[in-house]
DNA sequence: TTGTCAACTTTACACAATGTAAAGTACGTG
DNA sequence: CACGTACTTTACATTGTGTAAAGTTGACAA
């Protein structure tokens, strides 16, 4: 009964993630997913309205597995505004590679599917909250650069931390994940700190 | 003969651009383009191998109309490295909104089409050349921040000037084109100048 | 034991968009 | 007038999404 129902649904979601994160990247057509899950293609439509619906569900499914909220919340415990900004930047920067593949498909699907667009938009707004909190903490400490007000600084940080920028940095620029994080730390300091730290 | 041939080809390319840049955004299926051009759908396939081929041709067609090379070359005449960087950033920043729509489709198509990916990749590499030239000019003046070597600074500037970042800034952040340019000028100064200028 | 229900399978089809194929038309030029 | 080029028209193959409906299976209840 309900257990079986849930199992099949989970099997499909897991199959979607397996395909999305497989190396080399695999196609994720409805038939690919159903085959991977060991069910019929039609069974997928019993659980998910359409491809966008399945993808959005897979996104939430991955969130649970990664315990997304907890990871990002950790940055809120930092003492100083500067520590908090760096903790947030590092947490998010390390989170991106884990969601990158599914984010890419969701973004791509957003061009044609309203629900997918809305799902991604929500995530981005949540993410902006995190940026705002970090910038506000900096501002509260009086360590935010006078060159920016909090709104502009938030938007700028938000832009810098985009999935596309991670992709460009680690892809086109050929930076390692470590280098990406180092550069992110350096640039956020130079941009947002009232008194930027010099690189060693 | 050849004149007619060229005219039809041009009509198709112009139709593609008209649709791409129309407000509100229109679909650009092969049939939409042919209808807009006033020719049969099959006529399009007489001139272009496939959709990707048409789109790449439309990109070059737009380049000619915008006199792309000349516009970006202008930044090379600046005297100081700082002026040169700002001239380049402004030129490119003003160029993006004019190519944005077609760039977006080309990027999207790059996911599935090898030729489209290659065409976009070439453009991006050309663009990186411009970034490198600007950073090199700064470095030659001794005004490049010691926090970066020229390679890293080039990659960072390259990332900052991406089409995606323009899109995010003017879209999600809701910045005007003027504000986008202002913030770009400010951030590039703060990041790359050995002795950053303070904002007014 | 039989009946019923839900979950799943199987088969079939509609639809949209790309791309191929080939016969037909029309017009300018030798 | 004959010919070739450019274009049109019609038709069809292909791929992937999504809908529809009949058939199967197995657990559970009366």
Task: Describe the fold and architecture.
Two copies of one chain form a homodimer. Chain A has two domains: 2-48, Arc Repressor Mutant, subunit A (Orthogonal Bundle), CATH 1.10.10; 65-192, Tetracycline Repressor, domain 2. The longest helix of chain A has 30 residues, at 81-110. Chain A has ten helices and no strands. The first copy, chain A, starts with a helix and ends in an 8-residue tail after the last helix. The mean pLDDT of chain A is 93. Chain A has helices spanning 2-20, 30-37, 41-47, 51-66, 68-73, 81-110, 114-140, 150-160, 163-170, 177-192. The first copy, chain A, is an all-alpha fold and 200 residues long. At the A-B interface, α8, α9 and α10 of A face α8, α9 and α10 of B. Chain A binds a DNA duplex (30 and 30 nucleotides) through residues 1, 4-5, 8, 29-31, 39-40, 42-43, 45-46, 49-51.
Summarize this structure briefly.
With 200 residues, the first copy, chain A, is mainly alpha-helical. Chain A has two domains: 2-48, Arc Repressor Mutant, subunit A; 65-192, Tetracycline Repressor, domain 2 (Orthogonal Bundle).
Spell out the key features of this protein.
Arc Repressor Mutant, subunit A, Tetracycline Repressor, domain 2, 0% strand, 200 residues, homodimer, HTH_TetR (chains A, B), 10 helices, TetR/AcrR family transcriptional regulator (chains A, B), DNA-binding (chains A, B), Tet_transcr_reg_TetR-rel_C_sf (chains A, B), mainly alpha, 2 domains, Homeodomain-like_sf (chains A, B)
């Amino acid at each position: 009964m309900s257990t079986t129902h849930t199992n099949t649904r989970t099997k499909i979601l897991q199959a979607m993630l397996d395909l999305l994160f497989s190396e080399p990247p695999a196609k994720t057509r409805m038939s690919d997913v159903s085959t991977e899950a060991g069910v019929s293609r039609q069974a997928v439509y019993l659980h998910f309205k359409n491809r966008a619906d399945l993808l959005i569900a897979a996104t939430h499914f991955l969130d649970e597995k990664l315990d997304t909220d907890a990871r990002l919340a950790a940055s809120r415990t930092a003492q100083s505004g500067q520590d908090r900004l760096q903790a947030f930047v590092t947490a998010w920067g390390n989170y991106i590679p884990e969601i990158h593949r599914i984010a890419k498909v969701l973004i791509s699907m957003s061009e044609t599917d309203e629900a997918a667009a809305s799902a991604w938009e929500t995530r981005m707004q949540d993410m902006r909250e995190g940026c705002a909190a970090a910038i506000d903490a900096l501002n509260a400490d009086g360590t935010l650069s006078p060159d920016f007000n909090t709104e502009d600084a938030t938007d700028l940080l938000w832009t810098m931390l985009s999935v596309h920028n991670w992709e460009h940095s680690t892809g086109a620029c050929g930076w390692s994940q470590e280098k990406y994080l180092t550069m992110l730390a350096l640039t956020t300091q130079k941009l947002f700190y009232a008194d930027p730290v010099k690189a060693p």
